[in-house]
C-alpha cells in the first residue's frame, strides 16, 4: 500500500509540474505576442496588412503545423501565430482561404469555415484520397455557389465521380470547370448537374465524361470561350447526334477554342439544318473518323485564319480503293482550311511531313503561314507546339488507317499534297525513320519551288532526297529570238541555302555523305551554294568527320555544325 501511495504521489507531483510548465509556456507565448505587437510592421493599417497576407497566399502553400516537427512551421498559415493583431487581421480576411487543400482534410475544413463567402478556387485530386478527404469534399458542395474555378480530377476514385454526379447546386460565378472522369468508366452528368445553371462559364474541359447534351446549362453559355471534350477510344457513352451537337455549338457565340475528341457524330451527312456560325473561333481540333470529321466541318462556319487540327483521325476503309476515296474527300476540304494562294500576306511558309510521335499516326502533316500564330493555349490542351518556332500550325493533320491495307506512305502523301498552296513555301521539315517517300515526291512537289530556303530531313528518308540536291532542272527551250542567249541550267531546289540532317546513319550508308558533298560542289558551281549544314544525332565515322571538315575548309559548305555524333 505504501508503494501505491508513493506512486500516486509521484504522478500527482508530475502532473502539477506539467501544469506549471504549460502555464509558463502560455505566459511566454503571451509575452512574445506582446513583443511582436510593438514591431514597426504593426503600424501598418489593417487593410495593408490584409493585402500583404493575401500576397503570401500566392507564394506559399499552407501546411498543417506539426509541433513535433518545427520544419513544418512554414507557409502563410503561420501568420496567424505571430500576434493577436495579425491573427485578428488574418481571420478577418476571407480571401486568404480561397484555395482549400483537400489532401489535408482538417485544414481544408477549417479553410472553408474561415473563407465564409469568399470566391473559391478549388482543385480536387482523387488519387490517394482518404475517407476523411471525401467527407470534406461533400462539405465543400455547400460552397459551389461561390466557386469561380473548379478542377475535379477523379483519377480512378469512383466515389468522387459518384459525389460529382449528385451536384445540383447552381454555380452563378463559376468561370472554369475542368472534370476528369474515369478512364474505362466514363459517365454522363445529368440535366440537373449544377442545377442547369452556370451562366458565367468561360472554360469547360471534360475528359472521360460529358454533360447531358440536353442539359439547360448549354443554353446559357454566352461567355464560353473554350470547350474541350475528350472521350476514350472505346467509349461506351452514346455519342451526340449532329443535331444535338450543333444545337449546343449554336449557343456558344463567344467560342474561341473548340476541341472534340472522339465525340464526332456519325450522322452529320444527313443533317439538313443551317450551318453553325462561330465568328470568333481561332482554334479547332477534331478527332474521329476522317469522313465524320469532314462531314461535321461542312456544318460549321468559322474565320478563314482559324487553326484547324485533325487529331488522330482514322479511316475506316478496308481496301486501298476505299482509303483513297476517303483521302480524295478529305483533300477536297483542305483548300477551305489553307490560305488562298493569292494571299501573299498570309502565305503558306512552313511544312512538316512524317511521324513526330511514335505509334500514334501513320502520317502527320502540319502547315504554318507567314502570319505566325503565337496565341498560347494556357487554358486547355488544344493544338500542338511543334518544331516550327513554337507557333501553332495553321493546319495539322494526324491520319491513320488499318495496318492490313497495303498502301505506301508516298501514295498517301501524293494524294494530299496537290491541295496545298506550296509555291510560297520557305521551310520543309521531313521526318521518317526508314524511307517512306520516293525521289518522285520530292522532285514533283518541292524541287522547283522558288522560295524553299531550308530543308530539314530526319531519319532514313534522307536517302530519298539527297540525290536531288545536285541535280539540275531541264533548261527551257530557247525561243527563236533568243538563239544567241546562253542558258546555264539551274539546280533543283533553286533557293535552297540551309540543310538540317538528323538521325541518319552515314557510317552504314557512305553514299549519303558522298551525294551530299557532290551536290554541294555542283550547286557552288551553278552559283546556288549551300550556306549552312547542321548534322545532329547522326552516326559518322572519324573519316567522314574529317571529310566534312575539309568541305568547310574548301568553302563549298561555308557553315557546318555537327553535334551529338553517335557511334556504332
Automatic annotation (TrEMBL):
Domain annotation F-box: ranges: 42-102
Alphabetical list of SUPFAM superfamilies matching this protein: F-box domain, RNI-like
Any single Pfam family the record assigns to this protein: F-box-like
Signal peptide: none
Source taxon at top rank: Eukaryota
This protein's name: F-box domain-containing protein
Organism for this UniProt entry: Paramarasmius palmivorus
Lineage: Eukaryota, Fungi, Dikarya, Basidiomycota, Agaricomycotina
Amino acid at each position: 500500500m505504501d508503494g501505491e501511495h508513493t506512486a500516486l504521489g509521484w504522478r500527482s507531483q508530475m502532473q502539477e509540474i506539467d501544469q506549471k510548465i504549460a502555464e509558463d509556456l502560455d505566459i511566454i507565448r503571451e509575452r512574445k505576442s506582446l513583443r511582436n505587437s510593438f514591431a514597426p510592421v504593426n503600424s501598418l493599417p489593417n487593410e495593408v496588412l490584409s493585402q500583404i497576407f493575401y500576397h503570401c497566399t500566392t507564394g506559399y502553400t499552407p501546411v498543417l503545423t506539426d509541433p513535433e516537427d518545427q520544419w513544418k512551421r512554414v507557409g502563410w498559415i503561420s501568420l496567424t501565430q505571430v500576434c493577436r493583431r495579425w491573427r485578428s487581421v488574418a481571420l478577418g480576411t476571407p480571401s486568404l482561404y480561397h484555395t482549400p487543400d483537400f489532401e489535408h482534410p482538417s485544414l481544408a475544413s477549417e479553410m472553408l469555415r474561415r473563407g465564409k463567402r469568399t470566391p473559391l478556387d478549388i482543385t480536387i485530386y482523387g488519387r490517394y484520397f482518404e475517407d476523411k478527404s471525401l467527407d470534406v469534399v461533400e462539405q465543400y458542395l455547400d460552397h459551389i455557389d461561390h466557386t469561380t474555378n473548379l478542377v475535379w480530377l477523379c483519377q480512378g476514385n469512383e466515389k468522387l465521380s459518384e459525389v460529382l454526379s449528385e451536384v445540383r447546386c447552381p454555380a452563378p460565378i463559376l468561370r472554369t470547370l475542368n472534370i476528369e472522369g474515369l478512364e474505362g468508366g466514363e459517365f454522363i452528368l445529368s440535366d440537373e448537374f449544377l442545377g442547369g445553371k452556370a451562366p458565367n462559364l468561360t472554360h469547360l474541359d471534360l475528359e472521360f465524361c460529358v454533360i447531358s447534351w440536353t442539359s439547360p446549362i448549354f443554353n446559357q453559355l454566352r461567355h464560353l470561350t473554350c470547350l474541350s471534350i475528350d472521350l476514350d477510344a472505346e467509349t461506351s457513352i452514346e455519342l451526340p447526334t449532329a443535331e444535338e451537337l450543333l444545337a449546343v455549338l449554336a449557343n456558344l457565340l463567344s467560342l474561341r477554342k473548340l476541341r472534340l475528341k472522339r465525340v464526332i457524330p456519325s450522322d452529320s451527312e444527313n443533317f439538313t439544318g443551317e450551318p453553325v456560325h462561330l465568328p470568333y473561333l481561332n482554334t479547332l481540333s477534331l478527332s474521329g473518323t476522317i469522313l465524320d470529321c469532314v462531314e461535321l466541318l461542312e456544318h460549321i462556319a468559322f474565320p478563314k485564319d482559324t487553326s484547324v487540327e485533325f487529331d488522330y483521325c482514322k479511316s475506316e476503309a478496308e481496301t486501298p480503293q476505299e482509303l483513297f476515296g476517303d483521302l480524295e474527300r478529305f483533300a477536297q476540304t483542305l483548300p477551305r482550311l489553307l490560305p488562298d494562294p493569292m494571299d501573299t500576306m498570309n502565305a503558306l511558309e512552313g511544312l512538316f511531313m512524317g511521324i513526330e510521335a511514335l505509334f500514334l499516326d501513320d502520317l502527320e502533316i502540319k502547315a504554318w503561314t507567314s502570319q505566325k500564330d503565337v496565341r498560347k493555349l494556357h487554358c486547355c490542351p488544344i493544338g500542338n507546339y511543334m518544331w516550327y518556332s513554337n507557333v501553332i500550325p495553321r493546319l495539322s493533320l494526324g491520319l491513320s488507317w488499318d495496318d492490313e491495307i497495303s498502301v505506301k506512305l508516298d501514295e498517301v502523301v501524293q494524294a494530299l499534297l496537290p491541295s496545298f498552296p506550296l509555291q510560297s513555301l520557305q521551310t520543309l521539315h521531313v521526318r521518317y525513320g526508314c524511307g517512306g517517300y520516293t525521289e518522285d515526291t520530292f522532285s514533283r512537289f518541292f524541287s522547283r519551288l522558288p522560295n524553299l530556303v531550308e530543308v530539314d530531313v530526319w531519319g532514313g528518308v534522307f536517302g530519298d532526297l539527297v540525290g536531288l540536291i545536285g541535280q539540275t532542272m531541264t533548261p527551257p527551250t530557247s525561243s527563236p529570238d533568243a538563239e544567241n542567249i546562253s542558258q546555264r541550267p539551274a539546280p533543283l531546289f533553286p533557293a535552297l541555302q540551309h540543310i538540317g540532317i538528323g538521325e541518319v546513319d552515314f557510317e552504314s550508308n557512305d553514299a549519303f555523305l558522298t551525294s551530299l558533298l557532290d551536290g554541294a560542289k555542283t550547286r557552288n558551281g551553278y552559283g546556288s551554294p549551300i550556306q549552312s549544314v547542321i548534322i545532329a544525332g547522326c552516326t559518322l565515322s572519324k573519316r567522314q568527320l574529317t571529310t566534312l571538315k575539309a568541305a568547310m575548309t574548301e568553302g563549298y559548305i561555308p557553315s557546318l555544325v555537327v553535334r551529338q555524333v553517335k557511334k556504332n
